[in-house]
What we know:
The structure is a single chain. The protein is globular. The protein folds into two domains: 237 residues, 3-Layer(aba) Sandwich (Aldehyde Dehydrogenase, Chain A, domain 1); 198 residues, Aldehyde Dehydrogenase, Chain A, domain 2. The protein has 478 residues and is an alpha/beta fold. The chain is built from 15 helices and 19 strands. Helix 6 links the parallel strand 5 and strand 6. It starts with a strand and ends with a helix.
Amino acid sequence: MALEGGGAHAMDDILRAQKAANLRDGAPSVAQRIDWIDRCIGLLVDHQAEIEEAISQDFGHRSKDATRFTDVASSIGALKHAKKHVAKWMRAEKRKVEFPLGLLGSRAELQYQPKGVVGVISPWNFPVNLTFGPLAGIFAAGNRVMIKPSEFTEATSELMKSMFAKVFSEEEVAVITGGPEVGAQFSALPFDHLIFTGATSVARHVMRAAADNLVPLTLELGGKSPVILGRSANMDKAAARIMAGKTLNAGQICLAPDYAIVPEEQAGAFVSAATAAVETMYPSGLKDNDDYTSIVNQRHYDRLMGYLDDARAKGADVIELNPKGEQFEQQPHHKIAPHLVLNPSDDMTVMQDEIFGPILPVKTYTETREAVAYVNAHDRPLGLYYFGEDAGEKDMVLNATTSGGVTVNDVIFHVGQEDLPFGGVGPSGMGSYHGWEGFREFSHAKSVYTQTGNEILAMFRPPYGDKFRKQIAGRVKR
């Protein structure tokens, strides 16, 4: 069921009803959790065409093939992974007991129980995937959920609202639609856990609101994910993979490569390889190509064009990768051809903000440690990408940098591995989900200790005697 526009009181009522249902029904069985997951899979399968159409409508134009891959199939993959493993994840985890209590019948274990009600604030760039993907862990952990999708993708949000209402009661899933005011009210609710995916600037407000109720958070943010190309990299292969990641969803991806650092003497080769890669992927051009996605709205289009204007004004060499030389001034939507920004300086806005579009700054280095030092001089990114066949150099880069995750010899793909946790570090996020880590993120790991029936511990009760003192003396030593 869903709430249009909502209002704080109505949201409070839904949250109270879900918390009451959690207490009334207790921890869901394996069968119940699988049923929730199966209902989500069914929604994605049954509404695939409507999802593709709604997202394309919201973007002006978005590749339906890309939507089928990133939003539909990827979400189903996450849900099926959780379904396959949930029974194993739910088992109590045995822990060691201090000697000699274990020999005398004491037991220790972790029991994973639902947190209760999880709030999900999902973004516009992958509106379905970043709503349904977290549900894999949330439902596997046995929680109920309230969802606040983005107002930027209104048609998709309305579609998801009607989809969930078909197969879930409001006590199980509630969708709250509306703009920033509703989002602010939503983030201030006393959830048992809240996951937010979006901009770091907005996350600060979400975190402050959650702090009033001490709500635990998962923040999946972003930042400027760097690519370091080693001298041993296959330049053609690397450029093809980098530009595929940069042009997927027109670069509107939290893990999109945000800038590349290449060996100084190979900068020209990289530009040539990147140009060839775009020509190969979009041989008929970009403007009317169904495979090439638009920028989501005028505001973000203007922001990206502003980055290019600022870079040109401050001396960068800006190269448009436009295979057919098309004019983008006259178009029904907001498409932007891929651009390379060569020799960018740190005072350019394109090197300060997360780009979230098909613009790739290209810096150069003479020694690999210069590239590492540059990455380390900035906020820790959500992703880092290394290309090369030099194992020693690869290990140096990975050991000397800190990022949410890494893909070696490609970009973005680590997020698609359900058995790897996905999350950021510092300004790029906190907490992680996907797979087993997602189950644990949305569960409370409750420590349970069962005492021995033996009265050996009587010596630790008053009145204290020689046995007690001898035991303590045996512990207070190096």
